[in-house]
Write a structure and sequence with these properties.
Transferase(Phosphotransferase), domain 1; 664 residues; binds 2-acetamido-2-deoxy-beta-D-glucopyranose; receptor; single chain; Phosphorylase Kinase, domain 1; alpha+beta; 27 strands; rod-shaped; 3 domains; 27% helix; eight-stranded antiparallel sheet; binds adenosine-5'-triphosphate; Jelly Rolls; 15 helices
């Protein structure tokens, strides 16, 4: 019987002991909160993906609570120890919403409490009332003057009241006695220890950066008899609140133990914080996505802008008939690159039609002269293009090779072989030019140009009228060969739709007298201009010297010829060294013959060549002949000077293209 009693008693004692130890040893640890059984209210949640305890999300003016679901037994001499890692991630680095409080509370949701500066702990009626039974350690990031806060980055001990019983700027003491500030809202994870010793009734609070050793000296140390304030069964957990600034409050891990030291957190097991900030996903949507989108849009706009600009920059005009005409078309882009963007430095001359640029074709490194001709008339242009399409096929050593063309809105680009010595007029008239052409060179050039013009008139399948022979259109290659350039270009300025009634073309002083009346460019008008050119070369004078007395070169030489003093007209700069008087006289006389007032009386280019080569002696034509009569000594001369007026200039037409292709 007695034994029975002892068994019952000992069982009771054991059960009681078990009960007390069960309470006194209460402890838990959360290295991350995945699957943790916590009592959550308000905004608080455990993030499903990484197991963070998020007390508040980005909703402003709200609170969140997370408490251990079962209360702890807090008796008169109870001690506790707890530690947790937290992070306050704010939209702005220097501002944040309120903060986090570790709390001993009679409830898990603190009903009636307010967010913002009340930290979800109290409201304005119960703040400071001892019937709250709340003791908290606040991590406050806002200076609330109504609660006598010391600053906007402090740690405080709150007993039923947001007016902290004790508070200090966040930071930690290092072991040599120094102090380091910490910014609670830095977003960096930090660790806090809250330790209470029930025997000497001291509450210590220690803050330090995660990973650092726990400082020896606590940040706050307050003597307080907690059992007088908190309930016997009290919940432990966190309260947090947001104000008007978007902030998230995170707890990464938490360890708690009654009557003993809390187990250390395993930092390696703690979940990592969202990378961008507290508003990871929202930020991705509200900031990241627009940034990415605008970057994409910006790039797209840039690329299409560049493409449009390139299209505009390299824009060309191309019509069906040009495709038919075929092959001699350059892309504007190629010409643009060849001239390095048509820069000023590349200009080698300016003529009546526009600027001439030097360029190097990218594909074959060929040096070219590119003439930019502005045009507005489509009609003349069409004929001209048809003509150059075929002119491109002309090959002669005394013709400046037209390599091709390119057409854009309002302008035409003509690509020629580059002539390194420029145009003849510079040598004849440019006072700055040091080199004076000697007679041998001049005669060589004259013969070359004559042969080039003969080729145009007779050497090819079809007659080509040059229309603008003059010294500035005679280009000199590296070996000082004269080459005719610019043929047909004057056509551009003949806007008449009927090619048979073209307007006067050419340059004053080179225009045959019948041209203004007939308005027709013929072989004979070309010969007239060539005659003026001969006189130009021999006399070293422009066909019309505008300086002093306005004198037509042809008339001036004719006057001298009549006086029998033709040799007085010879260019004074011609030295006597290789001066061949017979040749000079021949050239001058031939010049006069070619500029005969009556077209029928001018020689043709084949005869001109024969005279220059001295295959035929120049007839000793009389004054009468030059005045419009027939040659006295040679009746057959008239047959020589076969009529050219009936020969109309060949006008390339659209039909020419098909002919052209059959020739190729
Ligand atoms: N193929 C070329 N190679 C080298 N230089 C050239 C070439 N074509 C033209 N030039 C230079 O550009 C200058 C201007 O040429 P352009 O033919 O446009 O004018 P112009 O013959 O003086 O007058 P117009 O245009 O009335 O015939 C020439 O004087 C010459 O110096
Ligand atoms: C969480 O803890 C409470 C209190 O101990 C208990 O009633 C509840 O069943 C637990 N929930 C889970 C999912 O474990
Ligand atoms: C914050 O959490 C609350 C409660 O879970 C939810 O209703 C709200 O939509 C969340 N806000 C944001 C911005 O995620
Ligand atoms: C303040 O909080 C207390 C206790 O939670 C509650 O009873 C009271 O209604 C609240 N007062 C206001 C004004 O919300
Ligand atoms: C404290 O709160 C209790 C209960 O809510 C109330 O009866 C009492 O009057 C309050 N005391 C003060 C000083 O406000
Ligand atoms: C730490 O913070 C306090 C309060 O804001 C300030 O007065 C002090 O200068 C700071 N110390 C350092 C080292 O930044
Ligand atoms: C609190 O800090 C003081 C002074 O650093 C120390 O003597 C005491 O042991 C600490 N108490 C606890 C419970 O950590």
């Amino acid at each position: 019987m007695l034994e029975m009693k002892t068994i019952v008693v000992s069982t009771l004692v054991w059960v009681l002991l078990l009960r007390t130890t069960a309470f006194s040893d209460q402890s838990f640890i959360f290295n991350g909160f995945r699957g943790a059984n916590l009592s959550l209210s308000g905004l608080a949640e455990i993030t499903s993906d990484d197991g963070l305890l998020r007390l508040t999300n980005t909703t402003t003016q709200h609170k969140g609570h997370a408490f251990y679901p079962t209360p702890i037994r807090f008796e008169k001499s109870s001690s506790f120890s707890t530690t947790f890692v937290f992070s306050i991630l704010s939209e702005y680095p220097d501002l944040s919403s309120h903060g986090i409080a570790f709390a001993l509370s009679p409830t898990t949701d603190l009903p009636g409490s307010l967010p913002s500066q009340f930290l979800g702990l109290f409201n304005n009626t119960n703040n400071g009332n001892s019937s709250n039974h709340v003791v908290a350690v606040e991590l406050d990031t806002i200076l609330s003057t109504e609660f006598d806060d010391i600053d906007d980055n402090h740690v405080g001990i709150d007993v039923n009241d947001l007016r902290s019983a004790s508070s200090t700027t966040a930071g930690y003491f290092i072991d040599d006695g120094g102090f380091r500030n910490l910014s609670l809202r830095s977003g960096e994870p930090m660790q806090l220890w809250v330790e209470y010793d029930g025997t000497d009734m001291r509450l210590n609070v220690t803050l330090f950066p995660v990973g650092a050793p726990k400082p020896e000296v606590p940040l706050l140390s307050k003597t307080i008899e907690l059992s007088k304030f908190v309930l016997k069964d009290t919940y432990v957990g966190f309260s947090s609140s947001t104000g008007s600034i978007i902030t998230s409050h995170y707890i990464l891990g938490w360890s708690f133990k009654m009557n003993g030291k809390a187990e250390d957190l395993d930092l390696s097991e703690l979940p990592s914080l969202p990378r961008i900030g507290p508003k990871d996903k929202p930020r991705l949507l509200t900031v990241g996505l627009p940034v990415i989108l605008s970057a994409v849009v910006f790039t797209a706009v840039m690329i299409s802008g560049i493409m449009l600009w390139r299209r505009y920059k390299y824009a060309e005009l191309l019509e069906d008939w040009e495709l038919e005409c075929g092959p001699r078309r350059f892309s504007y882009k190629d010409l643009y690159q060849a001239t390095k963007g048509f820069r000023e430095r590349g200009i080698i001359g300016t003529g009546g039609f526009g600027r001439v640029y030097k360029g190097v074709l990218q594909n074959d490194q060929r040096e070219v002269a590119i003439k930019r001709v502005s045009h507005e008339s489509r009609q003349g242009l069409r004929e001209f293009l048809a003509e150059i399409a075929s002119i491109g096929h002309l090959r002669h050593r005394n013709i400046a090779q037209l390599l091709g063309y390119c057409r854009r809105k309002g302008e035409l680009l003509l690509v020629y072989d580059y002539m390194s010595n420029g145009s003849l007029d510079k040598f004849l008239f440019d006072k700055n030019k040091q080199t004076v052409l000697n007679w041998r060179q001049r005669f060589h050039i004259v013969k070359g140009v004559a042969s080039g013009l003969l080729y145009l008139h007779e050497g090819w399948e079809q007659l080509v009228i040059h229309r603008d022979i003059k010294s500035s259109n005679v280009l000199l290659d590296g070996e000082m060969n004269g080459r005719l350039g610019d043929f047909g270009l004057s056509r551009l300025y003949n806007h008449g739709t009927d090619p048979q009634t073209t307007n006067v073309a050419g340059t004053l002083g080179y225009i045959a007298p019948e041209l203004p009346m007939t308005g027709r460019n013929t072989v004979a008008t070309d010969v007239f201009a060539f005659g003026a050119f001969l006189l130009e070369v021999a006399c070293g004078r422009r066909p019309i010297e505008s300086s002093d007395e306005v004198m037509n070169l042809v008339d001036w030489v004719m006057d001298h010829w009549r006086k029998g003093a033709v040799m007085e007209t010879v260019d004074a700069r011609l030295g006597s060294d290789d001066f061949v008087a017979e040749e000079v006289e021949l050239v001058i006389k031939l010049g006069l013959l070619c500029t005969h007032g009556v077209p029928h009386s001018r020689p043709n280019m084949r005869q001109v060549m024969q005279f220059l080569d001295r295959d035929i002696e120049l007839p000793d034509f009389s004054m009468d002949y030059m005045n419009g009569g027939v040659p006295e000594h040679d009746r057959g001369f008239d047959d020589f000077f076969m009529s050219t007026s009936s020969e109309q200039a060949f006008f390339w037409s659209k039909n020419r293209c098909s002919l052209e292709r059959s020739l190729m």
